[in-house]
Design goal:
Elements: H1 2-5, H2 26-34, E1 42-45, E2 61-64
Antiparallel strand pairs: 1-2
C-alpha cells in the first residue's frame, strides 16, 4: 500500500474484536491449540506496471510457503 500511495512503509496493526467460540466447539479448539506451530507463509507482491491502487488485482499477490495442518472434519456452528 505504501508503494502505491506514496507513503513510507510502517507497521500494520490489526485488532480482532469479538473473537470467541462456543462450548460445543471446545474439542476442535483443543485440537487446534495442541498442534505444533508451523513457519508462517510469506505474502509476495508484484506491482510492476500498476500505477494506482484501483488497478491492483489478485494476480498481483502470491503466497509462498503455506503449509496448513490437516482440516478438522467437523466443527459445530451455533445458530
Amino acid at each position: 500500500l505504501a508503494y502505491l500511495t506514496g507513503y513510507e512503509p510502517g507497521t500494520f496493526v490489526h485488532h480482532i474484536g469479538n473473537a470467541h467460540f462456543y462450548e460445543d466447539q471446545l474439542e476442535a479448539v483443543e485440537t487446534i491449540l495442541a498442534r505444533e506451530p508451523r513457519p508462517l507463509p510469506r505474502l509476495i507482491t508484484n506491482f510492476e506496471g500498476v500505477d494506482v491502487i484501483t488497478d491492483v488485482r489478485p494476480s498481483n499477490f502470491a503466497i509462498e510457503g503455506y503449509n496448513p495442518h490437516e482440516r478438522i472434519l467437523s466443527i459445530p456452528v451455533a445458530v
